[in-house]
Amino acid sequence: MPDRPNRSVVVAGALDVVCILVFVAIGRSSHHDGVTAGGMVSTAWPFLVGAACGWGAIRAWRHPLQTFPVGVVIWVACVGVGMVLRVVAGQGTAVAFVIVALAFLGLALLGWRAVARMAGERGPLAGFGRTRSTNAVE
Known about the structure:
The chain has 4 helices and no strands.
């Protein structure tokens, strides 16, 4: 039976998906396209596939909370692969859209990791996502 992913992997994956969906929802609503299920799926899937490619390329499940290099690879793959897939699918990739996607998704995908790392080192999340040592003295 395969190992279950630890909590930090599941939370990190979910937060990445939420960041992408928030980006898509804001974009769709700001362009008066509506935030319908079909519209969300058609706009989000290229970025979700890109993020999944980044997760696989860097094997993010090993250190899902790392901002660098894990978060950076996921961010670049999310936007890079996402834009290529949008072209293939006949969707728009205006320069302004690419810049906004890079800025928003960079802030979101890297930002939550930075906050989680800082909170984990100082607060109630201390140790979240880290494996515990079996040594009695750390």
